[in-house]
Amino acid sequence: MLKTDKERIVAELVDDLGSAETLIVADYRGLTNKRLEALRDQLIPLGARFRIVKNTLTRRAAEQAGVEALLLMLEGPTAIAFIESSGDPAAVAKALAATAKETNVLVLRGGILEGKHLSAEEVERLATLPPMDVLRGQLVGAVVAPLNALLGLVSAPLRDLHGLIGARIAQLEAQGEVVAEAAPAAAADDAAEAPAAEASDDRELEVEGNETSEEPAPAVPSDQEEEE
Known about the structure:
This protein has 228 residues and is of the alpha+beta class. The chain has helices spanning 3-19, 33-43, 55-65, 89-103, 120-126, 132-213, 223-227; strands at 22-27, 48-53, 78-83, 107-113, 116-119.
C-alpha cells in the first residue's frame, strides 16, 4: 500500500472516530465476504457503517483522534461499526450479537459508548435493550407520569376551593332571594298599617268633637228674670 493511501485511510478513520459517538469492535475472522456485505447492508438503516480496518493504521488514527480506549481492542482481524449520533446503538449491538450467534464466527470485543469503554459483556447487555424509539417512549412516560401526578395534587385543592366558592355563592344567592321576597311583604305590612293609623286618628278627632258638644250651653235668661 502506498504511503499516500495509508495517509488517506488514516485521515478517514480520524474523521470516522470524530463523528461517531458510539462504536462497536468485532473480530470478523472466518466471516465470508457475502456475510460481511449482508451485515453492512443490515447496519446502514440503523445508522452505522461497518468497516474492516488495519490495526496499525487504526492505532495511528485513534492516537490522532484521542480515542485511546480503542487501542486495547485492536488485536487480530478487526471490524468496527461506527454508529452516528442519529443511530441506534442498541439495535446495532443486537444485529451484531445475532450474527455472532448465527455464525459462531463473529466475536464481539467491546466498544465505546459516548466516550465510555464497553467490554464485550456490556455490548451484549446493550443488545438486550429495546430499540431507541421504545426507550424514548419509556423515558417520556417516566417523566410525564410524575408530572401528571403532581398536576393532580395541585389541581385537586384548586377544584375543592372552586367548589367551596361556588357553594358559598349559591348560599348567598339563596339568602338574597329570601331578602328580596321579604321586602315586598314588609312593604305590604307598612301599607296596611298606614290606613289603620289614619282611621285611628279620625276616631280620636271624633271623640274630641263629641267631648266638646257635651259641655253645658250658656243659660238663657227666663222671662221673669228679664222683667226683673
